[in-house]
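Good morning,

Attaching, inline, the backbone tokens for the sequence recovery test we're adding to the shared suite. The designed sequence is right after.
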């Protein structure tokens, strides 16, 4: 008998549709760009939900909300969902509210609130794992539809069924999965410390005294700026047997890009906004949760419309020097994002300033940082592998512990 079978022995697990046990509320409405400057109230951002299985109350953002506005507040026990994403598999990402707050907290307009009825016994520590489990993510993804952006259909979402085990079972599952999470967190903390050492030296090398170097914009050191496009999803003529690398923003991860997960056809380029981009461009993601991340394409490729690609003029700057500068300024770039989702655009990227020392100084900085990058990757190689193994182990037990038998469905 498996551990799960022992845990559920003699236990009645109810399955209910979300429509029967909960209500759905929207995020902030009637807000303009100006309302997100110098706000008087806090709200949960799209990225906060996307990046965390439980809402991080230390990184709430601010918005202007007047006392007379009729806006829904986030409450303890709610589960927050992103309403859309670039791909269906990432639509409807969840984050549970496991913290009780004494102040009013709202939700960004690109997300929605799932609030369980008062007679439903589901602890938020359990729902944070439940809605991120494989079977629930697969079901949620099926509720999304779209072309360049996939939106969750509330009507389909409400029809989803979830298991409601007894509180004792929920707490035991939480205890086990929290233990795995803690182990992974400890390893990640150590890896982060090593990366901070590298970041320290990078900051020192890329810091200049006033008047020491000339400053230009990224647009001024570029020959050309490229955008991209998404061939119509589901059209086999655009994807089947494709050989042309097509990059999505989730693959932009502060590194060299040697290949892409998806390939498209020549016809896709002819009939969409996707276009060839030469090798060694600086690629900056400009949309949502990935906004501000950068990479270098080591091969010619195409991208979706959520990438801004800079072809650097070698007479003005070394492309690897520009990459190190843009990577260093990730947080600053991300902070320039607009709207509730924090989107960037090509204008913001091109107008961002970069110090331009002499070619010799740039080459020296690149040589040192590339060596540090290689050394850090070598030293840290074991830790990321261990973290990846722990995450796989955690995902295995999470999905095993949350696989409740449906023959025990109770109407």
């Amino acid at each position: 008998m498996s551990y799960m079978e022992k845990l559920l022995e003699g236990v009645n697990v109810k399955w209910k549709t979300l429509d029967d046990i909960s209500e759905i509320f929207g995020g902030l409405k009637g807000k303009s760009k100006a309302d997100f400057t110098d706000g008087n109230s806090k709200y949960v951002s799209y990225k906060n939900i996307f990046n965390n299985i439980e809402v991080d109350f230390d990184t709430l953002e601010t918005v202007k909300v007047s006392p007379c506005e009729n806006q829904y507040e986030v409450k303890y026990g709610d589960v927050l969902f992103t309403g859309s994403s670039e791909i269906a598999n990432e639509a409807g990402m969840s984050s549970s509210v496991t913290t009780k707050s004494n102040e009013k907290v709202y939700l960004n307009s690109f997300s929605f609130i799932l609030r369980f009825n008062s007679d439903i016994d589901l602890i938020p520590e359990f729902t944070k794992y439940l809605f991120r489990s494989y079977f629930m993510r697969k079901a949620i993804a099926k509720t999304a539809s779209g072309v360049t952006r996939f939106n969750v259909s509330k009507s389909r979402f409400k029809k989803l069924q979830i298991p409601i085990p007894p509180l004792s079972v929920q707490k035991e599952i939480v205890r086990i999965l929290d233990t795995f999470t803690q182990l992974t967190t400890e390893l990640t903390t150590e890896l982060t410390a090593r990366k901070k050492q590298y970041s320290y030296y990078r900051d020192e090398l890329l810091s200049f005294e006033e008047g020491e170097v000339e400053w230009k914009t990224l647009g001024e050191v570029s020959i050309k700026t490229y955008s991209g496009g998404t061939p119509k999803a589901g059209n086999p003529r655009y994807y089947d047997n494709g050989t042309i690398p097509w990059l999505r923003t989730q693959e932009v991860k502060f590194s060299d890009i040697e290949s892409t997960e998806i390939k498209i056809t020549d016809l896709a380029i002819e009939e969409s906004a996707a276009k060839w981009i030469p090798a060694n461009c600086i690629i900056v993601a400009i949309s949502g949760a990935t906004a501000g991340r950068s990479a270098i394409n080591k091969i010619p490729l195409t991208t979706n419309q959520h990438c801004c690609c800079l072809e650097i003029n070698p007479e003005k700057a070394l492309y690897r020097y520009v990459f190190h500068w843009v990577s260093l300024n990730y947080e600053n770039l991300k902070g320039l994002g607009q709207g509730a989702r924090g989107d960037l655009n090509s204008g913001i990227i091109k107008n961002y300033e970069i110090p331009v020392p002499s070619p010799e100084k740039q080459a020296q900085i690149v040589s040192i940082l590339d060596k540090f990058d290689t050394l850090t990757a070598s030293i840290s190689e074991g830790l990321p592998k261990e973290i990846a193994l722990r995450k796989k182990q955690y995902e295995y037990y999470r999905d095993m512990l949350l696989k409740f038998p449906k023959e025990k469905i109770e109407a």
